[in-house]
Specification:
Chloramphenicol Acetyltransferase; six-stranded mixed beta sheet; 33% helix; OB fold (Dihydrolipoamide Acetyltransferase, E2P); 23% strand
Length: 434
């Protein structure tokens, strides 16, 4: 009996997505709830599970196609088995896979078919982000030792393997499959990648369609610039006290809570404290009304494979340092794996972006609508400052607060930033709510 696979509900206000990857092909056996495809929406990547156990008989859309919520994208024969459908697999894959010739034998005289088959089985156990990296970097996942939980592969493992593969060591098995021919499950950009890898010295170009997430980021940031009356105010902060506190308590903190004590928890707590004194920084505009929030839902900017995402730490004003650090660590892991949900990325009232982890000295961050302000953190470096009439070297960080001048006056923005500075330079204020 054939069962249709429908595009699941993708979240509030999201009506369509792009079929980014097929994780299974016609003829493959699947278990109930096993992911068979990956959809990309404006905000997140979503895996489409199989509703039943059986064998995939048809793929009704191609990679890159736009599909609406509820649309049928595949059919599964609930009563079939993988062995029974094996003779039809090659023909079915040829009609649905736009890359077609990518499955032709490799030019080397090696018996490649069994290896590819083993690789397919291995790839299906990988997360979407890792699977995408495997396909784009053309490495053999079965040859890579995973450093993730339970020995799972991470994106960093794949990147490291690809770098080692380029390093010119005596050619291992995966290296033999590299630049001399298009890789097997090649994406639409396979030809330019193969050409770029060829040692000919040719000047090459590559055109890649913007992902939905990147298009959404571009549109929203431009809308913010066009709509808000944005202004940025700066200050610097002496990180000595926070660095000393971390050094003194980091081992006890990690032993008790199972998580490392980072800088972000200090800044989240400092912003929660400052927002009590300057509530407009944590407010938003809706039409001609100002909406004030008595809670702080902090959008924490996290780098993901496809761009910057901002999962939300909710009710941060009530959370402990350990709870904040655990929440941020979990979001960071999900961002790398591409498993953040729409609900985890919506509803923030204020944003913190840490460009310092990439080495940024100073920046003017852009507001994340409908929020009215964003705090930019930057790298810490020793600089000469005057303390008690003496020039001394201190670990300093520049802070930048971009805000919507329609809602927040300059005095309020500066006051907020000064409150944050005071709390970071004297963390005791965070404990006594001062």
């Amino acid at each position: 009996m054939a069962t249709d696979v429908h595009v699941p509900t993708l979240g509030e206000s999201i009506t369509e997505g792009t079929l980014a990857n097929w994780l299974k092909k016609p003829g493959d056996a699947v278990a109930a709830d096993e992911p068979i495809a990956e959809l990309e929406t404006d905000k997140v990547s979503v895996e489409v599970p199989s509703p039943v156990a059986g064998v995939i008989t048809e793929q009704l859309v191609k990679q890159g196609d736009t599909v609406a919520v509820g649309a049928v994208i595949a059919r599964i024969d609930e009563g079939a088995s993988a062995a029974a459908s094996a003779p039809a697999t090659a023909a079915a894959a040829a009609t649905t896979n736009p890359a077609g010739p990518a499955e032709t034998p490799m030019p080397k005289g090696e018996p490649t078919a069994p290896v590819a088959e083993a690789d397919d089985d291995h790839i299906t156990t990988l997360s979407p982000a890792v699977r995408r990296a495997v396909l784009e970097l053309h490495v053999d996942p079965s040859k890579i030792k995973g450093t993730g939980k339970d020995g799972r592969l991470t994106k960093d493992d794949v990147i490291a393997a690809a770098e080692a593969q380029k390093g010119g060591a005596p050619a291992p098995a995966p290296e033999a499959k590299a630049p001399t021919a298009p890789p097997a499950p090649a994406p639409s950009t396979a030809a330019p990648q193969a050409k770029a890898a060829a040692p000919t010295g040719d000047r090459t170009e590559e055109r890649v369609k913007m992902s939905r997430l990147r298009q959404t980021i571009a549109r929203r940031l431009k809308e913010a610039q066009n709509t808000a009356a944005m202004l940025t105010t700066f200050n610097d902060v002496d990180m000595t006290a926070v660095i000393d506190a971390r050094a003194r308590y980091k081992d006890l903190f990690e032993k008790k809570h199972g998580i490392r004590l980072g800088f972000m928890a200090f800044f989240v707590k400092a912003c929660a404290l400052a927002a009590k004194d300057v509530p407009s920084v944590n407010a938003s505009l809706e039409g001609d009304e100002i909406v004030y929030h008595d809670y702080l839902d902090v959008s924490v900017a996290v780098s993901a494979p496809k761009g910057l995402v901002v999962p939300v730490v909710r009710n941060a004003e009530r959370m402990s340092f350990a709870e904040i650090e655990k929440q941020i660590a979990e979001y960071g892991k999900k961002a790398k794996e591409g498993t953040l949900t729409v609900e985890e990325m919506t509803g923030g009232t204020f944003t913190i972006s840490n460009g310092g982890v990439f080495g940024s000295l100073l920046s003017t961050p852009i507001i994340n609508p409908p929020q009215s302000a964003v705090l930019g953190m930057h790298r810490i470096e020793e600089r000469p400052v005057v303390r008690d009439g003496q020039v001394v070297a201190r670990p300093m960080m520049y802070l930048a607060l971009s805000y919507d001048h329609r809602l927040i006056d300059g005095r309020e923005a500066v006051t907020f930033l000064v409150r944050v500075k005071e709390a970071i330079e004297d963390p005791t204020r965070l404990l006594i709510d001062l």
